[in-house]
Amino acid sequence: MTRGAATLHRAFLLHRRPYSNHSLLVECFTAEAGRFPAIARGVKSGKGKGLGLLQPFVPLLIGWSGRGEVQSLNRFESAVAPLTLQGKALYCGFYLNELLMRLLQREDPCERLFEQYSETLAQMAGGQRVEVVLRRFEIALLKELGYGLILDRDIESGALLVAEKHYRYLLEQGPAPATGDEPHAVRGSTLLALNGEGTLDELGLREARELTRRVLSRYLGDKPLKSRELFRSWSKP
After folding, report:
1. Looking at the domain covering 88-235, what would its CATH class be?
2. Which of 35, 64, 200, 224 is deepest in the core (most CB within 10 A)?
3. Annotated domain spans of the chain
4. What pTM value is reported for the model?
């Protein structure tokens, strides 16, 4: 992969860790090349520069080169003013990054998802309610992965969803009318709001969170998300 060598591309780092004494191994996320690993050489030495830029949630412009799986990060600079995520928003940012690390295939271009990710970080940094913007991102991610949710019609009859009715969401199928007091029933108004038709009230936020968690768990497998464990530890009184 050499397409990033000649020009600078918008990027974020999803993760970083030390590599040898003076370098970093970073996981890059770009619109054109998707996510891929790269080595930033010498950035931890006394002569290294820009170490503070090479961290999650910093909008970057990067250039890279290499023919193997792991690229060499040749150039990097700030794209715009850094985003400041604090408190709950910071842990939610780690959650987003972990979802991308776990679910996105490497070197798979995803321009729409990159824009959604960038917008989501900006909204959280700007103080928008994280529960709302997270659900939007999760819906966009599932669509990008090819697991998009049906949020506008009943899969049994094909009829449009009715806001006042309750539905059971069948994984990898869609919503069907709830037949009684079912544990995972969700209102039609919640599904329609996730489809961009209306807003989520407090009950809707809880229903939406349970729904996306159930769906994502199917693809994440049994390994728990570290970001959730960190958030639980942070939020304990």
Report:
1. mainly alpha
2. 64
3. 9-78, 88-235
4. 0.91
